[in-house]
Amino acid sequence: MRLPTLQTQPALEPSVLSVVAARAVDELMREGESANTLASYRSALRYWAAWFNVRYGQPIALPLPPSAVLQFIVDHAQRTTPNGLAHELPPALDAALVEAGFKGKPGPMALNTLVHRVSVLSKAHQMRGVKNPCQDPQVRELLAKTRRAYGKRGELPQKKAALTRDPLMAILATCDTSTLKGLRDRSLLLFAFASGGRRRSEVSQADMKHLRRNGPASFTYTLAHSKTNQNAADRPENHKPIEGIAGEALQAWLAASGIHEGAVFRRVRKGGQLGDPLSAAAVRDVVKERARAAGLPDMFSAHSLRSGFVTEAATQKVPMADTMAMTGHRSVASVLGYFRPSSSNPGAHLL
User: Fold this and answer.
1) What top-level class would CATH report for the domain 165-341?
2) Domain spans in the chain, listed from the N-terminal domain onward
3) Which of 102, 212, 281, 296 measures 20 to 30 Å from 139, CA to CA?
4) Measured between alpha carbons, how far is 127 from 130 in angstroms, rounded to an integer?
């Protein structure tokens, strides 16, 4: 069958991506990334540009040579020398980066931050379709040996403490039920914990269109998209029950706030007026402020809810499959990374 030739638009050249199509590709790529991921990419690339400028006295331009990436690593990673730990970033340049707001404090980077920033640079080269210096054998070998060196020194990533049942109950006791803010914070904390330890971005993005009421104080929240389900695959574990005291708290918040559509959790302004949806950072602040109000040590963050759920589930002998269905993890190794063993581990008393 011969198709008619349409003359309403000029023909495209198959070997060249049009300006409009290139813009559409860029927009789809941005939309497909989470807001937190995009923010971390921007922060990392801003730092690369600033570091390159002060280190080499010229603007950054891709592709970078492997020697620049090697310099970046030794500038920010500590190594053992006869005089103790050292890194190569000159103090004057370090101070300039801190003063300009590109670094939070002087000194070497955390290993995770360093690895992430090299990963972001690698991604930037891939997206530009230019030769990637991060794939250079010397760069890959140096990163691998740097990780090993940190491990040999016992410098492991500092994980936040698990917000298990007892500290969570102490925090909930600070949430009064006579104010909108108190009702919101209580509901937010219980929603995040009871639905499998939701990440702060998932809590801030919770929307009424994904919430189904099953009965008095009983809901199901459908988490269609998450870090562990970025393609929004339709899975049975997407549906998270919100029941018991978590369901009661959510029902109280919705009834008092009058929210029927849009974001579930929102700012509460002075005078009890509802504002914009809470940001992921605001969710973190709720956890930290409530923990502080409960007199708890400064060791909890929003991610503590996720490790708290996993740890509490293990303590209460919830089957691993049920725990993973709630958290959304697809591998046992991943979910075990959130388990925080206690000093009362029975494995320590076998003899």
Assistant:
1) mainly alpha
2) 20-152, 165-341
3) 102
4) 8
